[in-house]
Specification:
Oligomer: single chain
CATH class of the largest domain: Mainly Alpha
CATH topology of the largest domain: Serine Threonine Protein Phosphatase 5, Tetratricopeptide repeat
Number of strands: 0
Shape: globular
Number of helices: 17
Radius of gyration: 21 Å
Distance between the termini: 50 Å
């Protein structure tokens, strides 16, 4: 039996056994809970993973835990939602896990008054779970692609593939389903399958910006960097937006093109509206800084934040990016000083929109 005090404070959590023992202690820090989550996710030990997520959320959502970045708390909440939904291996059996996840979010409704950012996050998740439950209960062919998009959003690409395949079995040329299934295959690292779906979609609708964006990410993952950049440029020309701009900046960066921001601006300038507005330029530069963050280039992010500190922000999207970058830089400073070591955020976190296609653009 564990001691009443938190004797686990000076132990490392490296194995499932370590995590299992840690979770028997009545008091664990948020950092220790996150270490358990990492170990258990890698081991795919979903029962204990869900327990660790619950402990992390309880600790992180506490009103006295203002020192814990909300980004980390939201990550723990996303983990537990994924753990709920992973209890099913088949889309036909999703209703009960979705209902359980929705109930769990509902029980945290009081948090909304503690931290507005986390409150908005929970409201968004509750709305998406409601949509997912409605689609699962209807379970018609028309529901399959929207269901696949939501399943990807919750980090469940294997189930997303099942849903999109239902639609494609009926209509093999459905481009939204091909795009979503291809993106899910990319999530899993099945790049040949992803390329097959995206190539088929491209043959049908070569000017579909959602498809081009998704195809660009797959090509980049497959190290076909020049092709990835060309597809990203074309997607951005057709649909200048935050996701396509992010994809273009990322593709340019992967190719070693240090002028990625100028490339995005050049595309905007060549469009029918001529030069971009200052507000659009501001958003593009913020997106470039966001990509730098995903690459761990904190010095460049800090330089960007210093440059915009006295600017009047025009778009709400730009302000959201600035707030995210500010929190991430502060967190990195803490980590370097040894006060916080929770591991790295996964690259291309879908919660922030990974720019692969429909989930970032198309409403349900």
């Amino acid at each position: 039996m564990p001691a009443e005090s938190n004797d686990f404070a000076f132990r490392e959590i490296r194995t499932v056994q370590d995590a299992e023992l840690a979770l028997t202690y009545p008091r664990l820090s948020f950092e220790q809970c996150m270490e358990c989550i990492h170990v258990l996710r890698e081991a795919r030990h979903w029962g204990l993973h869900q327990l660790a997520c619950g402990r992390a959320v309880e600790e992180g959502f506490g009103v006295t835990r203002s020192s814990i970045p909300s980004r980390r708390v939201k990550r723990a909440a996303r983990e537990i939602l994924t753990a709920y939904l992973q209890q099913s291996d088949r889309i036909e059996e999703l209703a009960d896990p979705v209902e359980a996840a929705r109930s769990w979010v509902g029980r945290l409704s009081s948090v909304a008054g503690v931290d507005p950012e986390i409150g908005d996050f929970l409201e968004d998740k509750h709305e998406k779970l409601n949509k997912l439950l409605l689609l699962q209960r209807r379970f018609t062919l028309a529901c399959m692609t929207p269901m696949a998009k939501l399943l990807r959003h919750f980090g469940l690409p294997a189930l997303a593939i099942q849903a999109a395949t239902r639609k494609l079995d009926d209509d093999p040329d459905d481009v939204p389903a091909l795009t979503t299934r291809g993106a899910a295959f990319t999530d899993l690292g099945h790049l040949s399958d992803a390329t097959r779906d995206h190539q088929r979609g491209y043959e049908i609708e070569p000017d579909n910006s959602y498809l081009l964006n998704a195809f660009s990410r797959t090509l980049q993952e497959d190290e076909r960097l020049e092709e990835a950049l060309e597809f990203a440029k074309r997607a951005f020309e057709i649909e200048p937006s935050k996701p396509t701009a992010r994809r273009l900046v990322a593709a340019a960066r992967a190719l070693g093109d240090t002028g990625e921001r100028e490339r995005v601006l050049a595309v905007l300038e060549s469009g029918p509206d001529a030069a971009p507005s200052p507000a659009v330029t501001q958003l593009v530069v913020a997106i470039a800084a966001e990509v730098h963050l995903s690459l761990g280039l904190f010095e460049e992010v800090e330089a960007y934040l210093r440059a915009v500190s006295n600017e009047e922000v025009q778009f709400e999207e730009t302000q959201e990016i600035i707030e995210k970058l500010t929190a991430a830089v502060a967190e990195e400073h803490d980590r370097r000083q040894g006060r916080l070591d929770l591991g790295e955020e996964p690259e291309g976190d879908i919660e922030d929109g990974d720019g692969d296609g429909y989930e970032d653009f198309e409403p349900i």
